[in-house]
UniProtKB/TrEMBL annotation:
GO terms for cellular component: photosystem II. One of its GO terms (biological process) is photosynthesis. SUPFAM superfamilies: Oligoxyloglucan reducing end-specific cellobiohydrolase (SSF110296). PANTHER family: PHOTOSYSTEM II STABILITY/ASSEMBLY FACTOR HCF136, CHLOROPLASTIC, PHOTOSYSTEM II STABILITY_ASSEMBLY FACTOR HCF136, CHLOROPLASTIC. Gene3D superfamilies: YVTN repeat-like/Quinoprotein amine dehydrogenase. Coiled coil: none annotated. The keyword Ion transport does not apply. Keywords: Hydrolase, Photosynthesis, Photosystem II, Signal. This is Glycosyl hydrolase. Transmembrane segments: none annotated.
Amino acid sequence: MQTYSRRTLIRTLCVGALLGTAIAPMPTWAEPKFQDPLDLPAQMRNGISTRPMLSVARAGDALVAVGSRGLIMRSADQGKTWTQSAVPVQSDLLAVHFPNPSDGWAVGHDGVILHTSDGGKSWTKQLDGRIASGVFKQYYGAGAADPATQAAASQIERNFKAGPTLPWLDVWFDDADRGFVVGSFGMIAATVDGGKTWEPWLHRIDNEKGLNLNAVRGLGGNLYIVGEHGMVYQLDRANRRFRKTATGYAGSFFGIVGNANSLLAFGLRGVVYRSDDGGSRWEALKMPADATVTSGAVNGDAGNFVLVNSAGQFLIGDRDGRSFKVVHAASPMRYTGLALINHTAAVVTGLDGARTEMLSGTGQ
């Protein structure tokens, strides 16, 4: 029986193509045909609450969590039980947001943007990297030849050179119509019609180096983006442009949270920077833990800050966001997302699924 090595097979195919000679039949153990996760619906699975989950959000009284291979699940009983939703892709999903109880958006790898209009029970695809590649290139190709547009056009060409695989890392909607998505290598897009159409905004942000944009949040009537090199960008709504502010931090911020008193930008190695003037000036805080801070929220009842990190810890702060203490979880894991149920409980996501954790010491 004749056997083939992978190197021999590739060599045979290449030589045959170059010389125009006949090629021996493919062996029966040839690798299966690649199936694009954009073309496959998420598989319905058992034990969904213990599978890797990467973000969670409130949808009115419900909770919706997203994770690997297109998994989206919904809880109507504050995280006690979860039901898997129908999802049209198997791409990994990284973030989810609901501006109201019905309308929500989830984003992730392969440039996927999903929408729900029934509170997360079912989802449809609005955009993916294959579609965006053509739409965004056409948008900048038809634009004026000003320097900002030219730079954005070049960035789009570089970003899609390897294919439509770049992920959207976060999503935020002001209401059911107006929203933003941000992602790797400076990718950013906006919609004003609920996601029916998306406009690239690479020419509308002070991000000349194409740094990663890791998170976007609306806080106190303002809109902020955080990313690499300690950058914070704030939307100038009048001029439709995100203006940058350097915080002095050289690493990456993965999120931003705020209340009426303070803004907190957080990220690698437990770093947290604080601003009390809406983001113009920033100061580094002394934190009680050095694990990467992955998500945060403001306790609506107590008004204080709650952060979680990759070591499975809660960091409970005061209302001013100046002082924090560590609260250990009952079942710690590498936390990726956080949604507060009330002032005493939260649902957290992580590499081991989704769990409800009771908080202590949050009423500072």
